[in-house]
Amino acid sequence: MGKRTDIHKVLIIGSGPIIIGQACEFDYSGTQACKALRALGYEIVLVNSNPATIMTDPDTADVTYIEPLNCERLEQIIAKERPDALLPNLGGQSALNLCAELANKGILDKYGVKVIGVQVDAIERGEDRNEFKKTMESLGIEMARSEVAYTVEDAVEIADRLGYPCVLRPAYTMGGTGGGIVYNIDELRTVVARGLQASPVNEVLVEESVIGWEELEYEVVRDSKGNMITICTIENIDPMGVHTGDSFCAAPMQTISEDVIKRLEEKSHRIVEAVQVVGGTNVQWAHDPVSDRDIIIEINPRTSRSSALASKATGFPIALISAMLASGLNLDEIPCGKHGTLDKYVAGGDYVVLKFARWAFEKFKGVKDELGTQMRAVGEVMSIGKTYKEAFQKAIRSLEQGCYGLGFVGDFHEQSKDELLRQISTPSSKRQFIMYEAFRKGATIDEVHERTKIKTYFLEQMLELVEEENRIITYANENPGKLLPADMLEQAKKDGFADRYLSMIMDIPEKDIREQRISLGITEAWEGVHVSSTEDSAYYYSTYNAPDHSTTTDAPKVMILGGGPNRIGQGIEFDYCCVHASIALRKLGFETIIVNCNPETVSTDYDTSDKLYFEPLTTEDVLSIYEKEKPLGVIAQFGGQTPLNLSAELKAAGVNILGTSPEIIDLAEDRDRFRAMMDELGIPMPESDMAVTVDDALAIAHRIGYPVMVRPSYVLGGRGMEVVYDDENLVSYMNAAVGVTPDRPILVDRFLNHALECEADAICDGEEAYIPAVMEHIELAGVHSGDSACVLPSVNISEEHLATIRDYTKRIAEAMHVRGLMNMQYAIENDVVYVLEANPRASRTVPLVSKICNIQMVPIATEVITMPLTGRPSPIPELKEKSYEYYGVKEAVLPFNMFPEVDPILGPEMRSTGEVLGLAKTFGEAFFKAQEATQTVLPKGGKVLISISNNDKPELPELAHALKEAGFDIYATEGSAKIIEGEGIAVETVKKLHEGRPNLVDLITNGEMDLVINTPRATSESAEDDSYIRKAAIKAHTPYFTTMAAAIASAKGIATVEASEDHGISSLQEIHARIK
């Protein structure tokens, strides 16, 4: 058929901010779609609210809008740009839901926009639980017995008929949001109520439970002629009952019989044909290995998290091909070096791919580490090996949680067999490690299978690793200090044991093991994974079970170390930096090599670099590649903390680390040395000290004065940071802190109360520094910079203080000889600018600054970093200060809806999973749009409920006046109401929970409040827990603020938007054209 000629301009909707259930795999798929359609000659209009993405770069699409993802904004964009077509199936659930909404409201028909890829009725057939059921019945395909509930009472009746346990699935949601497994009527009532709120159409499917069955997935691609190919099969090693996003899985299927694979493939193809998707579809099955019954669970008529995994596991770029098929091309028209054309594609490859999730339970106090049908993972790793054991051990060390193998994690090895067996009955983030120790304590395959329902094949593989490890430990105990015999070492490496893990269990230096291994010729070999639709492109994985198939060139090369798995504190922003570094290095004439293990990212796309190694980011794995490829140097400053943690060891092993040296990075992390440097430069810092014992900490706190900020050294994302107000809380913090040693003490800083925080990103060449703009935090000191809303350029910082910040940044960069990027954090208190910290590396705000200020920070930094190799002059002196017409407000997106038991307050420990950006000509409107982009549409007037802590009372008059001007009726608890009345403002007093009924929870729950402002009490102020107010607001979907700064900003934002006539939208390219 060839590509369509009736369309010329295509609108692509992105997936918005990174949340649990929808991560950076959609940046990868959206970027691929733009690439494919532009190559075919189409003009692309892209809309997304997430600034930390490659897809929102001004050169990825022709026209880029960073706007909130809702119907009103999209209609504005459609009216202005007049696209011919909309491609919705590459922006996750967000884009699918928006497409259906635009169609149902008649907006697509009004402007003559055709939907390509997946049709609107196909979205309904795949997503609407009743429609999907009808489609399956017409095909004679069995589903779990189920009925749709629209109320809690419906659900109770249905569950009585189906029996307990049963599974609840809200319609049109992702990541299992609002769903779960329930075992009794009380649990059912709670979860259904949550699910009906989570579903945009207020539907929950109540389904019979198939917990313990095998969970199997097919990734199918179909074209408009009805040609279909199966890209990949995925076997979830965790059986039914754990969400696929949390499940440990293998591709291709490892234990499923050929008959079942073929039968389910044929059924999958029939379903995809019936739904009529053009592009990729993920089909999920449950199969009972006892009765051989199979039932369809669900389909995703779009690229999904599983399709990113399937793409990277097989080398088939599903999103790229889906976009080409949406344009009218067919599979038999797309050439492929291996198969001729893609319609003849057959999944091949004699290797095993494993996916292991990464969680963040430690960030959320009070959350049980348990896995169920609601997704909890914040990231994932993928490993490739020749054997299951090799891939398994690589996956574990890719997670970057200090585990280089499966044994001796936590204190599991000290527990009894019975204790361990009891724990594995419930799926958790640590279950694989607990099973390993249970086997070591003598548990049988049957005992473990009975409790986990994990297939015996996978358990046998694990038991063999335990037995092999025990033989190594026995040898080491009998021959202390001696290296392993060659045959034992070779077998251990074939089975995936890392040098560092062997070093730990044998108590021998890792260097000795590496030297012995190399002297015996036991080194990694590399195999390629062919990329479909290309002539001969491939990416590489290491193995000890095959000869080497990787050839190298003599071209000048630079290696970039990626960021590994997404996690809170280190996300897509660092991948953005790595991708830009690779593009910049190519332009500078270098061959680029990327090392990373995250399947969701653009950096692990085959054509981002000249050569991709899909490998764990450990010293051993990186050194092997370095020795193979012999690059001129390695860049470690773009991938977040991950590569920085390796850089000192790599340098000690002779690797040339380009840019800022590891010694400087250490100096910035070492509080004593950094403070000494600041004293020398005459730059003020808040008083602080380091404590190893409880007595140390108390002495420091008494000297400095409460409140104090306490935190461990060497962390990213504020792990373990707290503000402490008294001795009692300080003692309990110190007693709970783990791993505190004189080398890794606890830092105790004076907490700057009511200080304005700000930060500056700079590009430095060792002598000069350039700062595009200073970013002002909206939340005051005490909220982690990753969670604080912030505005660029700054609004409230005086010219004098801005000049001081620029001066300090330049002097610090010069003194530290920073080469590349640097991020500086400052606080302003009582007219003094204090330095909080220096980070001589890329920070999570780099994409934000690049987009708002139209400066390519990473390419310029890359040019600086490679100056010793290229001999080029520094680009820094040429950079000039600019003036900006637009404000950009970044707002963090927090996952509290996934953790209903957690108090949703902001603090010094980072807990956001992603971010959005609001762009406008005024700060007020930009703040309003940023809130709107987090799906918290601020009310324009209505009723506001105020209950604030004593600490915040001085700012209450300003807030009350701002709310009154924005047109709100004010309701407040007694203490707050008195102050508001004193300002001459009408206020209605409401009762707290313990003061009788109706109280403020009743008002929030009944939907009577349009906005809730509740600031948490300081620990020393009141024993009463007020978190119920914030939790009630989340449950009722009522916008809420927990800091005065954000509440005041929102009141001003609402007033600005109400007063403004101009609600026009501008593309990123138009905004950049106005920067002088």
Description:
The protein has 1076 residues and is α/β, with parallel strands linked by helices. Helix content is 37%, strand content 20%. Helix 5 crosses helix 6 and helix 14 (431-440) crosses helix 16.
Question: Brief description of this entry?
Answer:
The chain has 1076 residues and is α/β, with parallel strands linked by helices. Helix 1 (25-39) crosses helix 11 and helix 7 crosses helix 8 (185-198).
Question: What best-fitting shape do the alpha-carbon axes yield?
Answer: globular
Poorly predicted ranges: none
Largest β sheet strand count, sense and barrel closure: 8 strands, antiparallel
Strand content: 15-25%
Number of strands: 42
State the end-to-end CA separation: 48 Å
Oligomer: single chain
Mean pLDDT: 91
H/I helix tally: 37
Q: How many whole angstroms does the radius of gyration measure?
A: 28 Å
Protein topology:
Layout: E1 9-13, H1 25-39, E2 43-48, E3 63-66, H2 71-81, E4 85-87, H3 92-104, H4 107-110, E5 114-115, H5 120-127, H6 129-139, E6 146-149, H7 152-162, E7 166-170, E8 180-182, H8 185-198, E9 204-208, E10 214-222, E11 228-236, E12 249-251, H9 258-275, E13 279-287, E14 294-300, H10 305-314, H11 318-326, E15 335-336, E16 340-341, E17 352-358, E18 379-385, H12 388-398, H13 417-424, H14 431-440, H15 445-452, H16 456-478, H17 486-494, H18 499-506, H19 510-519, E19 525-530, E20 538-543, E21 557-561, H20 572-587, E22 591-596, E23 611-614, H21 619-629, E24 633-635, H22 641-652, E25 657-658, H23 662-669, H24 671-681, E26 688-691, H25 694-704, E27 708-712, E28 722-724, H26 727-736, E29 746-750, E30 756-765, E31 769-770, E32 774-777, E33 790-792, H27 799-816, E34 819-829, E35 832-839, H28 846-853, H29 857-865, H30 867-870, E36 887-893, E37 914-920, H31 923-933, E38 942-947, H32 956-965, E39 968-972, H33 974-982, E40 987-989, H34 1000-1005, E41 1011-1014, H35 1027-1035, E42 1040-1041, H36 1044-1059, H37 1068-1073
Parallel strand pairs: 1-2, 1-4, 2-3, 4-5, 21-22, 21-24, 22-23, 24-25, 38-39, 38-41, 39-40, 41-42
Antiparallel strand pairs: 6-9, 7-8, 7-9, 10-11, 10-13, 11-12, 12-17, 13-14, 15-16, 17-18, 19-20, 26-29, 27-28, 27-29, 30-31, 30-32, 30-34, 32-33, 33-36, 34-35, 36-37
